[in-house]
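New to this. Please check this fold:
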Amino acid sequence: MDFRDEIYFLILTVGQEAGGEPFDGQLGVAYVIMNRSRLSKSSVIDTVLRSMQFSCWNTDSPTRMNIDTIPDKVLRDCYKAAVAAFFGLLPDPTKGATHYLNEGVTKKLRNGTLPGWFDETKVTTRIGNHTFLKLE
C-alpha cells in the first residue's frame, strides 16, 4: 500500500472528525489514529474504516456526506496535522492516547451518558472539544 493513500485517509478522517478544532486538536486526532494503527499493526486505512471506530465513516454519519465540501483552509490544516503525525514530525499532544470523544456531543446523543469505555482515570488531555484517553 502506498503511504500517500494512508495519508489521504488520515487527512479525510481528521477533517471529518476534527475539522472545526484547533490545530492541536486535529494533530491529536491524527495521533490517535496513528497510535491505534501501530498498536493493532494495521494500516491507517484499515484502522479508520474498522466498523464503529471512527464515527465519520459510519454509514449514518452526517459528516461523511460533507467530505467533498471540507473548506480548503481546513483541509490544508488537516493535511499538516496528518503528515506531522504520520511521520512523527511534531510531538504527540495526546500523550499516547488511543481514543477520544466530544463529551458534550456524546452526552447529547446518549441522553446524558458517556459510553462504557469512558474512564476519567484514563484521560490524558483535553484539547478543544475533544477528551483524549489512553485505553490500551
